[in-house]
C-alpha cells in the first residue's frame, strides 16, 4: 500500500522516468492497437460473396499422424463446402511416417473420403511435403490444414469470400486452443491466442500489415503460391511463405469468422521448446531473408511491408533485447526498490492485457469465455514478462550468434544441408 501511495505522489516526469520501458516502448503499441480496433469495429464489412464457387484442394501433410488422420478426414466430410463435393479435392501427403499412417490414408482413399494419397519413404519436412502435395492439387484455392487442427463446420467456407478480391493471395483463419483444460500452461495460452490471434491479427488485417498466415489453417490462391515457388525449407515456413507473397504484391487477409482449434503444449518445457523454434524462425526469415524490405531502391519496395517488418523488429526483437537492460538499470539506480517498480510494470501489463482480453472476447462473440479467464490474467502476465520474454531473448541470441535454426530437427538435417549449399 505504501508503494501505491508513493507512485501516486510522483509527478508525471518522475513516474515516466521510472516506468519508461512501459510508457515509451509498450504503451504506444497498445494505444495504436486500441485506435485501430475501434476503426475496425466501425468500418469492417464482410467480404463480398463469390459469384462462382472456386474449385478447392484441401492439403493435409503429416508425419506419424496415423492416430488422428481418420478423425481429421471425417471432420472435413462435415464441412459445408463438401456439399459441392465434386469441386473439392482432398490430398494427403505421408511424409515418411513409421506409424502406419500410409495404411490409414490408403483406406480413406478406398472409402472415397480422400482423393489423392502421396507417400515418401524418408521424411523431408513439412515444406517439402507441401511442395509435393501442390503438384497434385487441382483447385484454384488450396487450403492447408494441420492434421491435428479441428475446424468449425463452416470454417473453410468462411475463408473463400476473401478471394473475390483478385489481389488477395492468402487468407488465414482464427485459431483457438483445443485443450485449455489440460493444464494451467494450456489455459494461459488460451488467453494468449485470444489476444495475439483473435485480436492481434484483426488489427494487422485492418492496418494491412498482417505478416503470417498460419500453416495450421490457411487458404492460398494456387497461382499465388506457385508464382513464388512454393515453400522454402525453413523453420517457420508459414511466415516465410506469407512474406514471399507480400513481396510479390499479394494482399494477405485474416478471416475472423473462420474458426479453428489446435492443441498447445501442456507443460512449461514443451512450451519453451516450441517458442524457441518459433522465435529463432523470426530472425532467420524476417531479418536474414527479407532485409531488402527496407531498401527504397528495390523494385518491390512497399511501405506496408516496411510497417509489417518494423512491427516484428520493434516489438518482438528490440523490446526483448532492451528489457534486460531495463532490469539492470532499475537495480543500479533503485537497488531493491527496483523490484517494486518491476512489480508496477507487471501490474501495467496485466491491466492492458485485461482490456485486450475483454475486447478480444467481445469480438469473437464469447464474453463468457473471456470472463472465465480473468482469474488467470496475473499468471499470464508473469508468464509473458518473466518467462517468455527471456525465452525470446535466448532464441534471438542463439540465432544471431549460432544460427541454431539450421540444426533444428523440425527440418531434417540432410534437407537443411542442401538448403545451405543453395
UniProtKB/TrEMBL annotation:
Segment forming the signal sequence: none
Organism lineage: Bacteria, Pseudomonadati, Pseudomonadota, Alphaproteobacteria, Acetobacterales
UniProt xrefs under SUPFAM superfamilies: Nucleotide-diphospho-sugar transferases (SSF53448)
Keywords, sorted A to Z: Glycosyltransferase, Membrane, Transferase, Transmembrane, Transmembrane helix
PANTHER family: POLY-BETA-1,6-N-ACETYL-D-GLUCOSAMINE SYNTHASE
A Pfam entry, by short name: Glyco_tranf_2_3
Protein name: Glycosyltransferase 2-like domain-containing protein
Chain ranges passing through the membrane: 6-25, 312-334, 340-364
Origin species: Rhodopila globiformis
Family: Belongs to the glycosyltransferase 2 family.
GO molecular-function terms, A-Z: glycosyltransferase activity
Keyword Nuclease applies: no
Amino acid at each position: 500500500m505504501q508503494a501505491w501511495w508513493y507512485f501516486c505522489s510522483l509527478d508525471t516526469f518522475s513516474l515516466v522516468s521510472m516506468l519508461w520501458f512501459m510508457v515509451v516502448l509498450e504503451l504506444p503499441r497498445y494505444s495504436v492497437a486500441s485506435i485501430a480496433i475501434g476503426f475496425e469495429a466501425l468500418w469492417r464489412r464482410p467480404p463480398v460473396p463469390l459469384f462462382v464457387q472456386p474449385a478447392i484442394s484441401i492439403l493435409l501433410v503429416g508425419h506419424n499422424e496415423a492416430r488422428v488422420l481418420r478423425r481429421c478426414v471425417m471432420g472435413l466430410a462435415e464441412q459445408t463446402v463438401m456439399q459441392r463435393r465434386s469441386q473439392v479435392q482432398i490430398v494427403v501427403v505421408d511424409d515418411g511416417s513409421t506409424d502406419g499412417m500410409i495404411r490409414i490414408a490408403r483406406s480413406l482413399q478406398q472409402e472415397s473420403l480422400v482423393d489423392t494419397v502421396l507417400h515418401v519413404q524418408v521424411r523431408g519436412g513439412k515444406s517439402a511435403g507441401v511442395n509435393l502435395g501442390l503438384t497434385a492439387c487441382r483447385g484454384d484455392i488450396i487450403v492447408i490444414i494441420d492434421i491435428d487442427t479441428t475446424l468449425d463446420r463452416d470454417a473453410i467456407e468462411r475463408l473463400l469470400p476473401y478471394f473475390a478480391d483478385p489481389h488477395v493471395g492468402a487468407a488465414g483463419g482464427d485459431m483457438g486452443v483445443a485443450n485449455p483444460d489440460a493444464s494451467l500452461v494450456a489455459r494461459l495460452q488460451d488467453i494468449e491466442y485470444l489476444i495475439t490471434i483473435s485480436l492481434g491479427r484483426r488489427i494487422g488485417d485492418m492496418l494491412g500489415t498482417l505478416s503470417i498466415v498460419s500453416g495450421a489453417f490457411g487458404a492460398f490462391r494456387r497461382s499465388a503460391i506457385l508464382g513464388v515457388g512454393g515453400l522454402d525449407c525453413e523453420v517457420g515456413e508459414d511466415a516465410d511463405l506469407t512474406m514471399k507473397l507480400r513481396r510479390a504484391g499479394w494482399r494477405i487477409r485474416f478471416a475472423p469468422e473462420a474458426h479453428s482449434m489446435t492443441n498447445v503444449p501442456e507443460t512449461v518445457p514443451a512450451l519453451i521448446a516450441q517458442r524457441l523454434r518459433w522465435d529463432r524462425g523470426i530472425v532467420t526469415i524476417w531479418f536474414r531473408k527479407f532485409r531488402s524490405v527496407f531498401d527504397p531502391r528495390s523494385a518491390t519496395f512497399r511501405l506496408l511491408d516496411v510497417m509489417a517488418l518494423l512491427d516484428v523488429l520493434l516489438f518482438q526483437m528490440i523490446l526483448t533485447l532492451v528489457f534486460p537492460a531495463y532490469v539492470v538499470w532499475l537495480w543500479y539506480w533503485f537497488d531493491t526498490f527496483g523490484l517494486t517498480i518491476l512489480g508496477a510494470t507487471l501490474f501495467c501489463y496485466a491491466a492492458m492485457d485485461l482490456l485486450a482480453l475483454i475486447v478480444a472476447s467481445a469480438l469473437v462473440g464469447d464474453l463468457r469465455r473471456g470472463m472465465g479467464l480473468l482469474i488467470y490474467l496475473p499468471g499470464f502476465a508473469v508468464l509473458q514478462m518473466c518467462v517468455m520474454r527471456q525465452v525470446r531473448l535466448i532464441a534471438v541470441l542463439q540465432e544471431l550468434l549460432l544460427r541454431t535454426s539450421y540444426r533444428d530437427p523440425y527440418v531434417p538435417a540432410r534437407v537443411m544441408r542442401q538448403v545451405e549449399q543453395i
